[in-house]
Amino acid sequence: MRRKTLCIQCNTCGSILFRYIKIGKGHLIRCWKNRMIDNTLIQEKNEYYCPCGKLIGTDEKVWIKLKKQQISIN
Ligand SMILES: [Zn+2]
Q: With 0-12 CB in 10 A as exposed, 13-18 as middle and 19+ as buried, what is 37?
C-alpha cells in the first residue's frame, strides 16, 4: 500500500494542526486518531478546534471527521 505523511493546516490562521500517515488512495475525510502525529487540536466535548478557535472536526470515536473547507492538506 502507498503510504505518505500529509501536513494538515488551518485555513484561517495557517497553523499546522497535525501530520497524518495516509495509507492508500482516496480523499482524506476521516482521520484515524492513531495515525495523527504532532496533534495540536483542542478537544471540547465531541468537537476539535484549532488553537485560533476555528472548528476543524468532530469526534467519531476512532476517527475525526474533518471539515474540509476549514483545512488545507499538503
Ligand atoms: Zn487556526
A: exposed
Query: What are the pLDDT tens digits along the chain (74 aa)?
Result: 788 999 999 999 999 999 999 988 878 889 999 999 999 999 999 999 999 999 999 999 999 999 999 999 99
Here the cell at position 24 is 492508500
**The overall pTM is greater than 0.85:** yes
**Distance, CA 4 to ligand 1 centroid (Å)?**
24
Give me ligand 1 centre to Cα 1, in Å: 32
